[in-house]
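User: Sequence for ABC transporter ATP-binding protein below. Tokens please.
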Amino acid sequence: MTPALSIRNLTKNFGPAEIIRGVSLDIQPGERHAIIGPNGAGKSTLFNLISGLHWPTGGTVALHGQTISCLAPHVVNRMGLSRSFQVSNIFANMTVRENVRCAVLWSLGTGYSFWRNIGNLKAAQRRTAEVLDLVGLIDKAHLPAAALPYADQRTLEIAITIAGGADVILLDEPTAGMSHSETERAVALIEKTTRGKTLLIVEHDMSVVFGLSDRISVLVYGEIVASGTPDEIRGDPKVREAYLGDEAEDLPLTGGAA
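Assistant: Structure tokens for ABC transporter ATP-binding protein:
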């Protein structure tokens, strides 16, 4: 089976600083894969390389067998990969509906045109409503995005990420800054909205990681030091010593929530 994502010997230098140092990783279609590691490990840089925001110093990234390493982010997105960011990346002065509709347009083959009345694009309106209903924001569709509470802004970003119909989804710390109850709702939303898709997630909340993931990779100083099932990662002495520590005792034994 061709991996949904195949990363081979990926490196990234910023001047003399080596941030990503020879990462190789295959993620299979439909897999939920988490990247964990200490601050400064290179997790967001890895996401930027995969999504085209940065180009690698060396190595390759392939999406369903097609090399995407040196393609612009919008090209990568149109090939079926979409991502969110650590800090909410929304159009604050646009409505919730308008934010999602922007993400929908290109997926329907509809570019931007000064002369086109967007209200007449029934397919875009229908898909926008479907996404807003799926994430639970349909009743807030008319509100400016800036007026949403923080957790709802993160929900909106997930809605934007999935709106284009990409089958490979990258989520960068989707529950950062949330309360326990907000995190539980976010995890349920991620499970629902990415069902049947390939998910790659960076997350610091270990309960989220171990409860959601089929496989986990540990990134330390730009290198993958361990990769395996949640049980394997939880019991790996090197991982426990270097990263998880005593926290591992309280983590769920299995991942891959249905």
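The first strand starts at residue 5 and ends at 14.
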